[in-house]
Specification:
Layout: H1 17-25, E1 29-34, H2 71-85, E2 90-95, H3 105-117, E3 121-128, H4 135-147, E4 149-157, H5 161-166, H6 173-185, E5 189-196, H7 203-214, E6 220-225, E7 228-229, H8 233-241, H9 248-260, E8 267-270, E9 280-282, H10 289-302
Parallel strand pairs: 1-2, 2-3, 3-4, 4-5, 5-6, 6-8
Antiparallel strand pairs: 7-9
Helix pairs in contact: 7-9, 9-10
Amino acid sequence: MKNNFIYSNDNKRYHTLTYYYKRKFNAKVCKVSLNANFTCPNIDGKVGYGGCIYCSKLGSGDYAGDPKESLHEQFEKGKITMQKKWPTAKFIAYFQAHTNTYAPIEKLKTCFEPFIKRNDCIGISIATRSDSITDECLNYLEDINKRTFLTVELGLQTIHKNTVKLINRCSNLEDFTSMVKKLRQRNINVVVHIINGLPYETKEMMLETIKYLNKLDINGVKIHMLAILKDTPLEKYYQKNKFHILTKDEYINIVIEQLEYLRPEITIHRLTEDPNPNSIIEPTWLTKKIAILNEIDKLMSINNIYQGDKVEENILYEEKAYEQS
């Protein structure tokens, strides 16, 4: 079946990151994950202790560089590895592990400024929390955005209050929504992370999270599947409670419907989790990333589905209170 999706030059019926980068930079672009030894306000006691229950000891930076090495050493290793596959690729420094704005401005500058000045680095991407961007930090991010291609990645995970409490997220929807608005007012690109399959969430709850995001002025989304990893609080919780883990088919069907509720101009940065196979406990099907993506493509084609099929124009950018579960 012919693909008529306007944000695609291949068989994809959703707005891929590859397509976005190709249009913007006319090149293959790779993100090099870095570990800058940041911590998190949900670890050190500012907002909570212990971190989110699903987080590994590396703060979701399992594929980031070795924190014992300098950032430049990490970047060089990652770049060399990627150049073997994509010799002409351009690179973005991705500050991934933990909360990468949770530090004094001077420390942030020592991390970010060298990569702004590198000729082989076309931009930086910063993973953080909405409660960890001060007004001073906002001003600095606005300055960075004028000098290089900047993306701020905000973890939301879910809009549902009961789930937020269960996973020890120690955050609230109001702060998140406010920070998205502040960043976009400064023309900073915002990408939001969500997690499907969180304990006791229904399909309807996962769709509500994506519908809420569709009302906001965001640039991109990362969709993850909950991964139960070894040596995390979630491992212990699962061993005790044995909550339902989404099957591969359940996950794929939910993701496809979530794509239908997202505006087509929103870039999809990720459609599944990519766990370390040596660390994953459940679901083991997560290690078959390519198979999952291929199945999404196949079903969207068979059923003639495109990103944005269920979007209603009158809900775009609405700013109204949302009754959390």
